[in-house]
User: Fold this.
Amino acid sequence: MSLHPIDIGIFVAFILAVVAVGIFTSRHEQDSESYFLAGRGLSWWLIGFSLIAANISTEQFVGMSGSAADRLGLAIASYEWLAAITLVVVAFFFLPHFLRAGIYTIPEFLEQRFNRATRSIMALCMALVYILLVAAVTYSGALTIQTAFAGKLLFAVIPMNLVTGAWLIGVMAAAYVASGGLKACAWADLIQGSALIVGGGAVVYFALERLGATPVAALASSAPVPSTLTDAASGTAKFAALNAHKLHMVMPRTDAMLPWTTLLLGLWIPNFYYWGLNQYIMQRTLGAKSLAQGQKGIVFAASLKLLIPFIIVMPGMMAFNLFSKEMRAEADKGNARVLQLHADAKSAPDGKPVVFIADEAWSQLNPALAFEIAAHNDAVRKRAAATGAPTTEEHLIGYKYDTAFGFLLSRVLPEGTGWQGFVLAALLGAVVSSLAAMLNAASTIVSLDLYRTHIAPGASQSHLVNVGRITVGAFMVCGCAFAPSLGNPRISNSIFAIIQEGQAYIYSGILAVFLVGLLVRRAPPVTGVVGLVLGPVSFWLLKQLAPGVSFVNRASISFGIVVATMLLITRLRPLPKPVEFVPSARIELVSSRSAKLGGVAVVLATLALYVVFF
Assistant:
């Protein structure tokens, strides 16, 4: 069946408006400063909405809501609420340094502080990570389209599946980024960021309405349902009762993804990397009219971050309450192949040594089979230990949690009212915004930090812009081609985990190098190279030696190793005199008093939320 004509009309009109605004507002961007940094003319409100639209994507709508539907619940909101405090620090500590230096890219700052090799290593690492991020964001958007509209056709012809969704998203993002660069992204983000908040609010409203109308017996919870809960209770009351065990911010110390210990240090490292040193986020602030405008924009974005868990995390929990059976059915589609492998292994016990890894939810749903598989795994491991033969792993999952938001989109929003089309467009817009930001950042880094630095130092402005456009297309094709493979449960059952752990390889080293470079002015250039190389190497070694430790905590340990190593080298070979940063900015560098007051308010509001939900 096809989407309702009203939904199709709203969807198409929204997408065309976004692309048209992006292209029209940036149609004259031909030199590198205009194309890559919007001519350094962005106002605070444009920066704030653009930061949120670039950040909030299906990484959150799919991955974060899926993690909330799983065991993490509200605890996953720490990624958002701690980010609000992080943004305030970035506005008043990182941003002044970067704007004073007049840089185009974050790696460029490392050349000013250390040397060209440090800049090139960081640029190469970020370019490689952006390939993963482009694929992951494209996949998560395509998965939502497939989940929400499985079996439906767009324009009665195009099937709404993973491949179609991936290329639709990729081509849209590449179209206006290649045309207009950062200014196109910023103006498109203004529309998409606003629609994102409205669309998320609509999903919350209709989901609570659906909860209130559904009998308690038809609802699901991963904890016992209170006997006092009645069918007449409101949607809000049912949500609070069914999810009381998830409405807190602290997970056990042994949790594999978000132990409470990460709140002390672990989460701050990826937050400061992401919001302060990540090119596709910081590029918006590097394009500010002035330091005051940049600071106001960042604090505005920080205030919006406080709202995100209410329109993404809580709906994920509601989705499990309403659609756990559907999530289980989606998981069983992938489990069928794995279970057939297990049946074949039973009939041929000396065949290929396969270990079957079942998550806790699947084991609880299939206790007898889980016991049988555990015995099989013991036998395979003993035989492998005796013969030295390698084993392979296959995974069984109880629920496909990443389908949570897709089910809300297709089953909760009323058909024929335009809401499905609007929210689909807002969600797709969120994906496109994040994807466009990544493509724009990747083209900036490849063009300025790699191509101009090592291949064509004398390249003209127009030539660099053309290289940037070609880079956008290349990254888009790679991401769209790679995206469907991320649905394989062998990789992960959570796209959010893929994105976070993928970046964990580089962010501890990058943050350590920047902090030591800024705070320890006698650190010699070699420490920058050592820190960037040691970061991913130490993280990988820790993963081999301590696989049971949360990747966030591994990144913390890696960060400590890098900092200690850099300080040791500095102690042994300090520079004869401290490094002095020579100001080269062409914009006003006066800090904003109103932004400082707003930053204090954001920090106090964040602490209050932790007190309420701790």
The CA atoms of residues 127 and 446 lie 7 Å apart. Residues 162-213 form the longest helix (52 residues).
